[in-house]
Amino acid sequence: MDPTGQLTTSLILLQNQITLQYDGYPGLKVLAPYSSEDARGLLKATIRDPEPIVFLENELLYGESFPISAEVLDSSFCLPIGKAKVEREGKDVTITTFSRMVGYAIKLRFLRRKGSVLRPLDRATINASVRNTSRLVTVEEGCPQHGVGAEICYRGKLHVS
Asked: Measured between alpha carbons, how far is residue 158 from residues 33, 104, 115, 152, 154 in Å?
């Protein structure tokens, strides 16, 4: 696990730069959970997965409180790696985000959220949603060019057009 966070680390080790650095290695999975549920389920999946995985936690989320259901507390609870988490179904716009930006997207009344998982991206879910809505918005802390959001936009345009 690698605690990250834009405001709490040195300028060289910003979360978006770490995310981009790890994302460039073929075969390496990069996870960046938002909620306690995401963290617990994805951490269990990380431990069970035989492949190499980098698990990034945003330090600014350490003080946040999240509701926990009885299902999440069950010892067998585990989330699949590579599957998008859809918060709300909608028909107007597809919103993709990860880590701390999920909270901002929800607070700003964005209707849909995909992906606490960076890599592998659940491209099938994102592409199907964009085909349905014809609109895609990405929300991230990273740089506008060469970032995770830029990759999602490129892939969406490539496979939906």
From this structure: 27, 27, 19, 10, 6
